[in-house]
Write a structure and sequence with these properties.
By secondary structure, the protein is of the alpha/beta class. It is 34% helix and 19% strand.
Length: 179
Amino acid sequence: MSPGTPEAPASGTTPPESRTTDPRAPSRPEIVLALDYGLRRIGLAVADTLTRAPRPLPALQVTGDAGPGERELTALDALARELGAHRLVAGCPYNADGSVHPLAGRARSFAAAFGARRALPVHTVDERFSSLEAGDRLREQRATGLKRGRVSKGEVDSVSAAVILERWLAGEGEPGQGG
């Protein structure tokens, strides 16, 4: 190469100006924590942006009648720290007809409070039918012998969080918030 000629990128590398800014494909793998917000339980799942394989975690039982609050934020904070989470994906409830579910505002507010507490970017995904899909997956696992025993509501909630995370990793997300 002669002096003054720009050096070509090494074979197999992407020039910096053409790298994506998609949070689903960061330049370094990131841990993503997902939640399926509920008044009695919060389903949880985790994945990394390299393998893109969500794994359900034990659901967080909500205490009190008012829904998730400080105790649940503290527990999620400890979990996010333990996992080394870089992002949060939260399911946002909609009705079957596409209208906003009454819990959508509470789910968004809770996710935003958690994200602010941990300084994590928060992404929301339409969670319509995620619990049905989770229930179907768990029933299939029982039918094929991969899962034994009764399916708990907490398991459904956490597999639902895994479905929500799969959707986000596949490119779904609510408009206006970067997916």
